[in-house]
Amino acid sequence: MKTDSRLSGVLHILLHMAEFDEPLTSEALAQMMCTNPVVVRRLLGALRKEGLVSSEKGHGGGWRLAKDLRKVSLYDVYRALEHPKIFAIGNRNETSGCLVERAVNHVMGESFEAAEALLLQRFKEVSLADMSAHVHEHWAEKPDCTKAGQSHQ
């Protein structure tokens, strides 16, 4: 079952960006993330539309954060990515004529809705600044991982 890692990936990128005063190129960010610059541009392009990041072309250009980390929640980033599906599991058949399967669908549907509501509420409560603080709490474990050109997994 394939999972959607865009939210995790873009949060990772944003926290790296927070460590730099200058703009970072898609290539530098991609190298940090062990991915392709096109992936970085696609992810950050969605955030640019929502005003979370900005970009400048040309020599000395690149991507930078457009908002204070304290004013950006995980929910803001999730919403900018056009609400990726939260759960990878679902009902076997949405329009079954079987009473048993309809009962299963009903209970699972209610459960998924309740779980998603709790998760999205939590996303609204956590800011990028909270996540950045966590990075800095554990900085001594791997202090060089945010330098341009450094990659890690």
TrEMBL record:
Entries under Gene3D superfamilies matching the protein: Winged helix-like DNA-binding domain superfamily/Winged helix DNA-binding domain (1.10.10.10)
InterPro entries: Tscrpt_reg_Rrf2, WH-like_DNA-bd_sf, WH_DNA-bd_sf
Name of the molecule in the record: Rrf2 family transcriptional regulator
Organism: Gilvimarinus algae
